[in-house]
Every structure is written in structure tokens, then in C-alpha cells.
Amino acid sequence: MPPRLLSAFSSEWFSVALGTTATSVAIYWMSALYRLPILRWVGLAFLIIGAASFAAISVLWAARGLAFPHLIGSDSRDLNRVSFTAVMPLEMIALGTALQLYLGAPRAAFAELLSADYFAALAASMSLSVLEGYLLYTKGEISGSELTYALVIPPISVSTGVLLAPSLVQIAPGLAPLVDFLVAGGLGVSFMLFIFIGSLGLAAHVREVKGPEHLPVAIFPVGVSSILVINILFLSSIGFIQGKLALTIAIALWGFELWNLLVMAAVSAASLRGRPPMSVWAYLFPLTIFWVSSIHISALLASSGYSLPSRIVIAVGTAVAAAILPLWAYSVYASALLLRWLISLSRAPAPTDAAAEGGKSP
Fold it and tell me: What is the pLDDT of residues 335-352, one digit of tens each?
């Protein structure tokens, strides 16, 4: 592979794997709820593609670091690169979740693999979140382009392990107290940092960041709120939070998610024109988690006697889920355009700075 092309595979590319695996999870739930077996096979294909792309991008990313050691140092000081590196533990959790859904209840070796996946992802998420906080406090000069909603990726990745928590508690009862404790602690990290770092990202986005390449990441608060919902409902299921209170908080957060979705749909329709940016992959994980949280809330509303609100929530969730596959195709199109540009750039006789900056197209 030409060196200039290899240097383009920075941490932003992990969003390709995460978006594909998230699409697999979304398709699974559509298949399960509406009894469409054909979709299960489609979702399984997406899972295989997501796992393969994660492996390939990981190899390319590692090879980039070995071939260009100076980029390791520059990436570790770049808030965007540190933030997108946290997509790796998110993808680890997403893969574990998808494997559990498609293969059923984990047993024996798979159960051990699931446990290792959970704890490794949590350790990586917390480490990257601490590094991000360190940079925010100590970095002398922070450019406006670094202050985007991508900053919430490390904090929210800390609490995404809740997607695996129910299975871990079931297959390893001895780990239940530790997992329950970690979920509650992770919720605190994600919630508080979402307030502070999310506010910072919003202020920077409104005042400084106006380019279309930064627009899709503004949907991350939807993913954050959805993960908070799932955490709260899990803690309610183990008795940490009273049921009605948990449902009330979940509905309130769901309302914020819906508002944010409507705003982002309007803004995206008005702003995304012409060549799509690579960052459109950012839509897929938050929309999938919104779909999953809608399923949980709808089920609880139905069991509590609120049948009409339950149907409303699941209808909205289904409408969002139906948009995920077309958005995945649109994201693949954006990646194909970027790769074509990078390949042409790598064949150019004169060196450029753009490829070394992680594949940012003009």
C-alpha cells in the first residue's frame, strides 16, 4: 500500500466498523419484533462485514502507527483523534452485543470471551476518557475544529458496557455485584461529562464549527441520551432505582432524543449538499441505540398499562430504524468517494499534507 494512502487510516475510520455493526443490531431487532426471518440473515451479513471491517481497519491503523511513529504523538495530542479512538471500545461492545443476539445465550468459551470483551472495553474507554480530560485541562491552545460533539465519545463509551451487563449477570452470577457497581459508576461518568463536555461541544459548534464535515457528529447527544436510558432501566431492573422513577426519567430522556432527532433531520436536510463527508457514519450508532431504547421503553409502558404511549414510542422507533439501512448505504458511498480521492492523491508525484492528516478530503 502506498505510504500516503496508509497514513490516511486514522482513528476516524473505526466509525465505518461501528456503523456497520450497529446496523446489524438494528436489523436484528426489526426482524425479531416484526417476525421477518429474512432480515435476520441480512443482519448476520452486516455483522460479518462489521467484524471484518473492524479487523481490517485495526490492522491498517496499527500499521500506520508503525510506519509513521510521529503520528502517534500528534494523534495523542489531538482531541478529535483521541475521541474517535474511543470508537474502538464502542465497537468491541457492539460486536459482543450483536454476537449475543444472533448466537443466543453465551456458554463456556463464548461466555469468557464476552466477559473479557466487557472489561477490556471498559478499561480502554476509561483510559481514553481520562486522556481526553487531561488534554482539555492542559493543552495550551485548542483549535475550534477540535471542539466538536465527538468529545462525548470517550465519556459515553464508559457506560456502553451496559449492553452486555444483563448477559454477564446471568452467565456469571459471581460477577453481578461488580458489574452492577461498574454500571452505576459508568452512568455517573457519562452523565456528568455529557453535561460539561457536551455543553462545550455545543458552544463550539454554534460559534465556530460550521463545516458540513462536522455536522453529523452533532447527533451524538441522541446516542448519549439513549445509553443513559438503557443504564437507568438496567439499574431499575436490579433494584437500584424505583421502577416508576426510572420509567419517568427514561421517558424524559427519550423526549429529548426525539427533539434532537427532529432538529438534526431538519439541519441535515438543509446543510448536507453535494459530496457527503466521511462523518455521516456518525448517524448510525446513535440511531440504533435510540431504536433499542425505544423498544425497552415501549415494553415498560405496555406492562404498566400505557398502551397508546407504548405504541407511539415503538412507531417512532420503527420509523428511525427504517432509515438506518439507507443511511448505511449513503455512508458507504461517502467512504467510496473518499477512498477514490485518497488513491488518486497517493499516486500524485508531489507529497501533500492532506493524506498525513488522516484522509481529510478538500
Answer: 888 888 878 877 766 544
